[in-house]
Amino acid sequence: MPYLPIIALYKLGLLPASKTRPVVSKVAFWLRRPSDVQQSAQKYVEEYIPTTLREEMLEKIRWHSDQGDDIYLVSASLDPYLSLWCQKQGIALICSTLEVRNGRYTGNYVNGDCSKQRKVIGIQQAIDLSSYSKIYAYGDTVEDLPMLGLADIMYYQGQPITELADLN
Q: Cα–Cα distances in Å, from 23 out to 26, 27, 152?
């Protein structure tokens, strides 16, 4: 397991998640066929993701859906499984996307790790925010703070906040 030193550095707090994920992805996905990964992703979506979802966040998704809102999941996680989950939910996705060349994953990200300021860039490239009268954003980690800064109504770790300075 060539990525164990990377995981150890991450667990010790010496390597941030935004640097850990690309290295682990490189090792895990290099030269794998997307069709092979898709099978694992489907199983992950069906068996694991439901055990990790917080009911209050699912309720928020349902509420926004009932309001007719456009809903985007913006995540540093990977597209093979998130795209499946988002399709099932009927929501759009902006996330870390794995590069495919010659029918195989390279292990690299197309546009880098979708965290911190890259979340903002991804949102601005995909969405005309000026066409919305109100923007809601939900985040759980410090990597989400730049994205929360785009919103009129912000939630951090399930709690409403009025300013990012409230988190200091």
A: 5, 7, 34
